[in-house]
């Protein structure tokens, strides 16, 4: 059973994810294998810590806008500025802490594992808004939260092995890649359209 596999893996000194899906083992274990540049990547303990930090940061980021809006509503009811409301400041501080946590997680585990976990903030923020702001979450909203969580799990399980950049030459080669340059041009074009045409 799942519990027996977990206990057997723990007795053998294996990391927590060893009894999970094989794709999950390959994706997370990739961080424990020395890279091509000769510098070893973090081990299983660092990967577990990095994933935990990524999950907590995602939940914190999901609560920031809810707390800020709650602070604005409270300040508006009192007729004062939201800069004087402690709930608004707690949301702002939580935003900074969440981004710092994301940065730390990116240094410990591959990007393909951290980025999908950011979607966990969507259902958490929706649930928090239903309690703090008394907003109703309809069936489509609940379905969207479920799909975001399912998508995160699928992306993590089937994530490819990430390539580590160890030298400046490799970084310059990737930055001048035609695919990256094309993507950057599309993003800049969309930004210009949004700024000067769609929402001037």
From TrEMBL:
The chain crosses the membrane at residues 45-66, 86-106, 112-133, 140-160, 180-199. Keywords: Membrane, Transmembrane, Transmembrane helix. It is found in: Membrane. Signal peptide: none annotated. It is a multi-pass membrane protein. One of its GO terms (cellular component) is membrane. It comes from the Eukaryota. Belongs to the NIPA family. This is Magnesium transporter NIPA1. It comes from Micrurus lemniscatus lemniscatus. The lineage of its organism: Eukaryota, Metazoa, Chordata, Craniata, Vertebrata.
């Amino acid at each position: 059973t799942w519990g027996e596999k977990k206990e057997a893996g723990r007795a053998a000194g294996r990391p927590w994810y060893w009894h999970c899906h094989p794709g999950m083992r390959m994706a997370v274990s990739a961080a424990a294998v020395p890279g091509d540049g000769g510098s070893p990547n973090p081990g299983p303990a660092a990967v577990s810590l990095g994933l935990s930090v990524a999950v907590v940061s995602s939940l914190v980021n999901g609560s920031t806008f809810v707390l800020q809006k709650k602070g604005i509503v409270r300040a508006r009811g009192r007729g004062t500025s939201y800069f004087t409301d402690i709930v608004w400041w707690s949301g702002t501080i939580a935003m900074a802490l969440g981004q710092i946590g994301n940065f730390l997680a990116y240094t410990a585990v591959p990007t393909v594992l951290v980025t999908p976990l950011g979607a966990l903030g969507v259902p958490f923020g929706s649930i928090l808004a239903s309690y703090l702001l008394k907003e109703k979450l309809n069936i489509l909203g609940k379905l969207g939260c479920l799909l975001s969580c399912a998508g995160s799990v699928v992306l993590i399980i089937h994530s490819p092995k990430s390539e580590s950049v160890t030298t400046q030459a490799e970084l310059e080669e990737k930055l001048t890649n035609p695919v990256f340059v094309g993507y950057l041009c599309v993003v800049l074009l969309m930004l210009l359209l949004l700024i000067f045409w769609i929402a001037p």
